[in-house]
Design goal:
Elements (H helix, E strand, L loop, with lengths): L1 E12 L2 E13 L4 E5 L6 H7 L9 E10 L2 E2 L5 H10 L1 E4 L3 H4 L6 H12 L4 H14 L5 H4 L9 H13 L5 E5 L7 H18 L2 E6 L2 H7 L2 E6 L2 E7 H6 L4 H8 L49 E2 L6 E2 L5 H16 L1
Parallel strand pairs: 3-8, 3-9, 6-7, 7-8
Antiparallel strand pairs: 1-2, 1-4, 4-5, 9-10, 10-12, 11-12
Helix pairs in contact: 4-5, 4-7, 5-7, 7-8
Bound molecules: adenosine-5'-triphosphate.
Amino acid sequence: MLKVENLHVHLNTPAGVVKAVDGITFNIQPGETVGIVGESGSGKSVLAHSLIRLNPEPPAVYPDGEIYFEDRSVLHMNKKELQTFRGKEIAMIFQDPMSSLNPVIRIGRQLTEAILAHRKISKSEAKKKAIELLNDVGIPDPAVRMRSYPHQFSGGMRQRVLIAMALASEPKLLIADEPTTALDVTIQAQVLDLLKSIQQKYGTAIMIITHDMGVVARLADRIMVMYAGKIVESGKAEDIFYHTSMPYTWSLLRSMPVLGSTRHRLISIEGQPPDLINPPKGCAFQPRCPFAMEDCAHSQPALEPRSEAHHLAACLLSESAFEEKKNQMKGVLSS
Ligand SMILES: Nc1ncnc2c1ncn2[C@@H]1O[C@H](COP(=O)(O)OP(=O)(O)OP(=O)(O)O)[C@@H](O)[C@H]1O
């Protein structure tokens, strides 16, 4: 359904060219849930926004690569084509629902208008559909709540409303950019469960962007790990969690809190993410990598298959060598 080929997105800033997306290739199939994880600044949002050309142009330019949605080139769409494409085929929800809702217009009207923008139905049918959608996303008393203003809803409820708005056009792909970061933990879990149930009901593919490995663990079939504008590891969720093949992914996983663990402090990844204007030569993670070898500073590892099908990693260490290094590290940490 979605095919991204060797995509490069550059941001021309006064300080220089930020290589925010630096040669990324992936597909999303209908109904699939794909998680994109990485630290702040790794290029997740720029990548997601480029799928519907939401990065302001300038500063964004697309010097190389292609994005196809059902064989249509998104990078070659004109303004009018983009307008109908956005929301209708691919919809997006953001971290802060308040910024996407109009504070002075009732929820019901905003939702009804979103439906009417995409479907040729009467106003009363759209209203009925709006109530149905609010019900689907778990808003109690939806017919009554249609008359509420955004500030009369809690943060979690507002995120539910936005999910309903995104579903108004029955998109084939829903991009959720850090949809739960602004919510507290119990509400986060409810919103993630809602996304899962929506996918089952509507068959919508979901691309979820997060810096939280716990979020992708809960939701994603397939995970792509981003570092410095590149995908450094991708595979099925179980490959990423149980056959981790790239030291950056391993570091992200080690920084996750573990329920019931005797570990008392969270392990953070030492060092800073690289400057995307002057990225380091060789592997961009090398300056922070606990397993770096001499070659890592000179040659950039390609994203290559590992032993499990469709599991790719960009690391000069072979699977067995990485396994050995991890075991040595565990030995040092436990002694
Ligand atoms: N409008 C812009 N102008 C200049 N640089 C930008 C702009 N937007 C993003 N960047 C830079 O592009 C890089 C990628 O940013 P992006 O927002 O995609 O990261 P991210 O992984 O989504 O991080 P976060 O989780 O903090 O949103 C960063 O170095 C960021 O500073």
